[in-house]
Design brief:
Blueprint lengths: L1 H5 L5 H12 L3 H8 L9 H15 L8 E5 L2 H5 L3 E10 L2 E11 L7 H16 L5 H10 L3 H16 L3
Parallel strand pairs: 1-3
Antiparallel strand pairs: 2-3
Length: about 160
């Protein structure tokens, strides 16, 4: 059962409904109806501008980002859809903090709402490092439908792995 792997922790009824949609070949249609918007954020430069616009709107006092990129190896190597990194670099007598966000390339073709959800998730890590209550509260502040979009992302990934 593919749905059980992607939807672990969700109620059994939801898992069964998702699996039935997949088996009936209606999952892609369901997702297209729920997430019709496409986005034009296809390049690293456009992604950097998009992330900075969201950061400026919701996290004005957060430290600046040095790099935002799509990463083709991300899902394979780290089993992640996005990463945030903080590295300290020595520059002469000073230490400089570099902050980077990497987003899996599968989001180039994903619906706009799912890209927004993963960007919000990674931006929230600028303030909260751990996935705790404060982290998810911040995610929900930046994207009110965060939890629904997280569920939709799981359905999207399930459909990509095994399209019916």
């Amino acid at each position: 059962m593919l749905a059980a792997r992607y939807l672990a922790g969700y109620p059994l009824e939801l898992i069964q409904q998702a699996e039935q949609l997949r088996l009936d070949g209606r999952l892609a249609e369901h997702l297209a109806r729920r997430l019709p918007e496409v986005h034009e954020v296809r390049s690293d430069g456009a992604l950097f501008a998009y992330v900075n616009e969201l950061k400026t709107r919701h996290l004005r006092n957060a430290e600046p980002l040095n790099s935002v990129n799509y990463d083709a190896k991300l899902r394979v190597l780290q089993q992640a859809l996005g990463t945030h990194t903080r590295r300290t670099q020595v520059q002469g007598a000073k230490l400089k903090m570099r902050r980077e966000i990497r987003v899996a390339t599968l989001f180039k073709e994903a619906p706009a709402a799912l890209l927004r959800m993963i960007v919000v998730h990674e931006l929230a890590h600028l303030r909260e490092l751990e996935h705790n209550k404060a982290f998810y509260k911040l995610c929900q502040h930046m994207e009110p439908d965060y939890f629904q979009l997280e569920f939709d992302l799981r359905l999207y990934l399930m459909n990509r792995e095994n399209p019916s």
